[in-house]
Amino acid sequence: MLGYTVRRLLAAVPTLLAVLTVIFLVIRMVPGDPAVALLGSHASAAAIEALRERLGLNQPLHVQYLQFLRGALRGDLGVSLMSGRPVWEHLWNVLPYTIDLTLASVLIGVALGLPLGIVSALYRNRFLDLATRVLSLLGLSLPAFFTAILLMLAFSIRLGLFPVISEGRLDDPLDRLHHLVLPALSLGLIMMTYVTRATRAAMLEVLGEDYIRTARAKGLSERVVVLYHALRNALISIVTVVGLYLGILIGNSVLTEIVFNRPGLGKLIVGALEERDYNVLQGLMVFYAFLVVVINLITDLAYGLCDPRVKYHADSR
Amino acid sequence: MRTAADASRLARAAHWTFRLLNASRASAAGLAVFVAICALAVATPWLAPHDPVAQDIPHRLEAPSARYLLGTDTFGRDILSRLLWGSRISLTIGIASILLAMVVGGALGVLAGYRGSRIDLAIMRLMDVLLSFPTLIMGLLIVAVLGPSMANLIGAIALTVVPKFARIARAPTMAVREREFIEASRALGVSDLRIMAVHVVPNIAGEVLVMASLWTATAVRIEASLSFIGLGVKPPTATWGGMIREGFEHILDAPWLSVYPGLCLLLLVFSLNLVGDGLRDAADPRLRNGQSSW
Lengths: 317, 294
Fold this sequence. Notes:
The structure holds two protein chains of two kinds.
Chain A: H1 2-28, H2 34-39, H3 45-55, H4 61-74, H5 87-122, H6 127-141, H7 144-158, H8 173-207, H9 210-217, H10 222-259, H11 265-275, H12 278-306, H13 308-316
Helix pairs in contact in A: 1-12, 5-6, 5-8, 5-10, 5-12, 6-8, 7-8, 7-10, 8-10, 9-10, 10-11, 10-12, 11-12, 12-13
Chain B: H1 2-23, H2 25-47, H3 79-115, H4 117-130, H5 135-146, H6 150-177, H7 180-187, H8 192-229, H9 240-248, H10 256-283
Helix pairs in contact in B: 1-2, 2-3, 2-10, 3-4, 3-6, 3-8, 4-6, 5-6, 6-8, 7-8, 8-9, 8-10, 9-10
């Protein structure tokens, strides 16, 4: 397992390097001069020049690139052009909100999607299955921000159960949870549709296998057959979908954060775009890319846990 | 001779599509809705009762009436007309970006799969780099770099889908490459470019087209999301995402402003997902016999 993990990590290095290069180049192409954005368009040319010098924007591109690469590899994401504070500090401030939202959405998605998918597969082509299929496809078609708006309309505005602005105090667990419910539900429901579909498809495939027939023939209860024999083998495809969707979920959280006016990575990136804060933008993109690579790695390693054969093949290669 | 061959290929493709649609009633229903939306979008200049950007301030935020069938927005603009015109933006960007991504991504995937070795490695590494960002975040950044115009949105959305097409085209190409008729063509001295265009592409087109309908749904959703963030086609042009954004500012007093465009968006994306999902199931032999994946 350790050998496989190390090999997988090493394979990610060239991709990460290429990703860093692309980020550096793309960020340099964002129109507008950050020095002008900072000082305003009425600032004197001398003042703008001085600021460009201080921010290191006057240095040749390759020097800036090497500095960026060195920083990124050391985990130093630079300093915000607007606030003068380290980008990490901005990230740390909002990270708990994003982690809360992501974990809660995944939990909701798996907790609802797994049983729904199993039931749908067990009652194939019956009413329950058809209803689940139509609902999951509908859920899949809902844009994240529209789900958020509908939930807000129903539960915050009509029923008054949850706050409209979902910031929440981090030091008060109950307040934090209360503010988390609707945003997490809006992303979790979409996650649920993906998990339901993946679970149903994987279970249908597994339930037709010979070993399931053997398990039934042995006289095992249906519960044991479904939960221990079928679900365990279906887990690998479900884990893939959760892993794949995590990346999409992190992207979609931008929309949820905007609707619920909730701090997080997404709102930070939109703010940085508006303010032309190159460094925050650059730092965030590095962080996002790093997240996606880590999620892919965890998904790959999770295969090994779900299916020992994967680990064996990977190690013996 | 050539025309006859083309005609027979066309007939085969039409037969294949018809068989798939026949196999999946859900797909046929989705296609019917999608075609209806397209027809409305095409007929918009004749159907829309009002100019979509004409303001009627005295009648702002009005409820539905005989004059304004779905009411008016904050500037007194007719919501129905804006919805109709907005459908053209969603459809144009959705379809154009997927066509572009299909051509570019498909070509890259076929090239990678057919040539293999270093070219394969280089192309797929590049695709991995593009896949290292959440789709929406990448779209957001590209539109911010290029500026929010219709052409740039199409390019940005296409770029986020190119790697997916490359992957979906590469796998079957690698299988087709090993077949005897390819080897025979090579032995006859047919150029690689011609083999790829004439022999490989028709053999993998089915799989690529099925995914194209699913990803058109994704493209429509990304366009709406970017418009909602404020990076869509500039106002006062009507876009569904932009209308939801404007309506969201009046969520307390006029919630229908965002609900109507949201429902239109849902209907379009749902119809496309129905088409794509059904086609994918019908095309997948493992999923026939009612084992639909949706």
